[in-house]
Amino acid sequence: MPAPSPLPTYLYKILPSAPPSPLPAVLPLSDLDRNDGYIHLSTSEQVPGTADKFFGTFDSLWLLKIKYDVVAGGVDGEGNKVGGEIRWEEVGRGCFGHLYGSSLGVGNVESVEKVDRSGSWVESLKLEY
I want to staple 26 with a disulfide (CB 3.0 to 4.6 A). Which of 102, 103, 111, 118 is the partner? Predict the structure, then answer.
């Protein structure tokens, strides 16, 4: 599936609990990411719907804000050039970015943000594209 046009500036990884602080070089994979063989990512427009669908019972979420051109350029969580890639793949309700052959961590995560829910996640999340 083709990448969105224009390409997003940021992608986001949704976490149901706080990541380690300080952020390590390589974050452990979630069970879902490990089983699927890639890291699930969302654009700013997709995060609220994904949060409502999969994290609707949570009062808080943590978002890893990832600069698209860094991970698309194959930089891993340690900041090394590894040749990982973003593949845009159709998943039932849209085309999502999946990170293959790389990791997330301090070397490619721009920031970590805790978001508290007030109402739905759609109402609570306003993210940079």
Answer: 103
